[in-house]
Structure formats: structure tokens, C-alpha cells
């Protein structure tokens, strides 16, 4: 019997292929300059596939999504402008269009990472405290691998090329606030796409961490 591949799995397959060739292309010096400018497309595709598979287009979920995007973008914009929140850093040009020297797609990054990390933890527990703390820990752990790769690739740069400890504290604090907001809305998030996105992100940055840094 021939089993048909579901639409959900097709989208997930496309996303994983995009991450695989993106990782490979960036790791290979001769192709890096072609693949790096595709970074905003990768972020938008990740968000698109998340919503396609999650299949919740209710007004409540869309309002939550807009709020997460605005929170993520705002803390980044304030951070870039003042250097007070995360430390002194600035974005390069690879993320595309900027507002207040901050790429708009950075809000997209906060959005799908927040929802995905919540979706994974939500599968295992319904306890409020854990639904705030564990997703925030996941996101902060991911940032630990993101930072050296991001600096090496020119996504952003830190003053004196040193990532301050306050960056991770602020990542955790912002993530905790966002996940508290998510819990308030209590969405039911698809755990499958959540796991796929988080694993794709971890593999992408961990692989590049060892290949290019």
C-alpha cells in the first residue's frame, strides 16, 4: 500500500530541506555569499510553515502573535538604541529592512521561537510556572549558540566582540514575559512543528558553531 504524504509533512520537509542546504551553503566558503542574503527568507519561511501546520488563524491567536512580534522588536530596538538592555550591539545588513536600526524580521525570529518553545513544553506539562520558565530556558540556551555564529556571519556585532552576560539575562527575562503572555492567552500549539523548528534552529547554529567559528 502506498502511503500519501500529508500536506503538513510536505511543508515540514520543505522547511528542513531549506535549513539543510542553508547550513551547507553557509558552511562552504564558495557559496556563503549566495546563501547569507537568503536569511530573511529563511525566517519568513519558518514563520509561514509554523502557521500553516499549526493551523490556528483565530482572532485571539493572531492578536497574540502581533503582541509577541511587537515585544520582540521593541526590546531589540530599545537595546540597539541605548545599549542598556542587552549590552552595546548593532545589526548588520543581512536581515534586510530596518526601523530604528533594527531589522523588522528580528520580531519574526522572536515570534516563531517563542511559540515553538512554548509548544514543545506545553506537550509535556500544563503547569503555569513550568510553561513560563522552561520555554525561556530553551530560548536562552539557543541564544548561547546563536551569538558566536551571528557575529562571525555579520548578522550583528557586539562592542569589543564580547557578548555580555546581561544579554543572556535579558533574553531570559524577555522570554519569560512573552511566555507569561502566551500562557494568559492559552493557545493550543502544534507540538510537531514546534519540535521541528527548534531542532532545525539548534542543528543549524550548533553545526555552524563548530564549522565556522
Any overview of this molecule?
The chain has 8 helices and 4 strands. It has helices at residues 7-27, 29-35, 39-54, 59-82, 105-124, 128-153, 165-185, 191-212; strands spanning 89-91, 98-99, 102-103, 156-158. The strands form 2 sheets. The protein has a two-stranded antiparallel sheet. The longest helix has 26 residues, at 128-153. It is globular. It starts with 6 loop residues before the first helix and ends with a helix.
Helix-strand blueprint:
Elements: H1 7-27, H2 29-35, H3 39-54, H4 59-82, E1 89-91, E2 98-99, E3 102-103, H5 105-124, H6 128-153, E4 156-158, H7 165-185, H8 191-212
Antiparallel strand pairs: 1-4, 2-3
Count of domains: 1
Distance between the termini: 47 Å
Query: What is the arithmetic mean of pLDDT?
Result: 95
Please state roughly what percent of the residues sit in beta strands, choosing from under 5%, 5-15%, 15-25%, 25-35%, 35-45% or over 45%. under 5%
Counting DSSP E segments of at least 2 residues, the number of strands comes to: 4
**What is the rounded Rg?**
17 Å
Main pleated-sheet profile:
2 strands, antiparallel
Strand order of the largest sheet: 1-4
- Form type: globular
Class by helix and strand content? mainly alpha
- Helix tally? 8
Amino acid at each position: 500500500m502506498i502511503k500519501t504524504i500529508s500536506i503538513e509533512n510536505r511543508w515540514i520537509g520543505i522547511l528542513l530541506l531549506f535549513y539543510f542546504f542553508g547550513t551547507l551553503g553557509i558552511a562552504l566558503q564558495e557559496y556563503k555569499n549566495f546563501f547569507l542574503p537568503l536569511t530573511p527568507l529563511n525566517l519568513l519561511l519558518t514563520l509561514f510553515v509554523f502557521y500553516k501546520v499549526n493551523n490556528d488563524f483565530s482572532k485571539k491567536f493572531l492578536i497574540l502573535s502581533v503582541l509577541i512580534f511587537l515585544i520582540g522588536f521593541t526590546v531589540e530596538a530599545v537595546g540597539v538604541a541605548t545599549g542598556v538592555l542587552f549590552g552595546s550591539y548593532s545589526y548588520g545588513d543581512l536581515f534586510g529592512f530596518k526601523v530604528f536600526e533594527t531589522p523588522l524580521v528580528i520580531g519574526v525570529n522572536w515570534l516563531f521561537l517563542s511559540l515553538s518553545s512554548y509548544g514543545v513544553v506545553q506537550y509535556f506539562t500544563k503547569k503555569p510556572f513550568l510553561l513560563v520558565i522552561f520555554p525561556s530556558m530553551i530560548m536562552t540556551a539557543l541564544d548561547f549558540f546563536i551569538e558566536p555564529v551571528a557575529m562571525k556571519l555579520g548578522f550583528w556585532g557586539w562592542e569589543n566582540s564580547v557578548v555580555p552576560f546581561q544579554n543572556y539575562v535579558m533574553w531570559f527575562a524577555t522570554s519569560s514575559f512573552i511566555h507569561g503572555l502566551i500562557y494568559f492567552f492559552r493557545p493550543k500549539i502544534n507540538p510537531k512543528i514546534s519540535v521541528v523548528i527548534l531542532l532545525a534552529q539548534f542543528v543549524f547554529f550548533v553545526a555552524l558553531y563548530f564549522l565556522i567559528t
